[in-house]
Design a protein that fits this description.
The protein is 57% helix and 3% strand. The chain is mainly α. Strands 1-2 form a two-stranded antiparallel ribbon.
């Protein structure tokens, strides 16, 4: 049996990504290390994350069309001061949510966690910059597939 063409399809689409985001942020908001980073958290954030992940993993480009694309995502991290300790805890909690919510496909789970590892490194870098920093044009939203970052 061959894998679906996109990670989005293999994951199960938006319903599964919404469950993943919800399970993850339920943990984050109860975590002593991460909860302060998400002090301004809104329920809309969970949906935006699911929509972002859908686009990144090969689904519809709704984040770009309706939320603001890659530029918006990067700007939302400016000034947050995310540390490597935050990043590692974030990855630990996301791994738990992936285990709970994604299909039992080890390659799929591995690729999804590889994306999160890659993306959180960028979040740490951007979060060290002050709010209002001109990031230039970051280009279109990244896409992540069975072999990692899609060129």
């Amino acid at each position: 049996m061959t894998e679906p063409e996109s990670l989005y399809d293999a994951i199960g689409g938006m319903p599964v990504l919404r469950k993943l985001a919800s399970a993850f942020y339920t943990q984050v908001l109860q975590d002593p290390l991460l909860a302060p980073v998400f002090a301004n958290f809104t329920a809309e954030h969970t949906d935006h994350v699911a929509v972002w992940l859908a686009e990144v993993f090969g689904g519809p480009a709704e984040f770009t069309a309706h939320v603001g694309g890659h530029q918006h995502l990067l700007h939302s991290h400016l000034g947050l001061g995310i540390t490597e300790e935050h990043r590692q805890r974030w990855l630990e909690l996301m791994a738990v949510a992936v285990e709970q919510e994604l299909p039992e496909n080890e390659l799929l789970r591995q690729r999804v966690l590889e994306y999160f590892d890659w993306g959180t490194k960028i979040a740490v870098e951007v979060s060290a910059l002050p709010v209002g920093t001109d990031l230039g044009e970051p280009g279109s939203s990244p896409r992540w597939g069975w072999s990692g970052l899609v060129p």
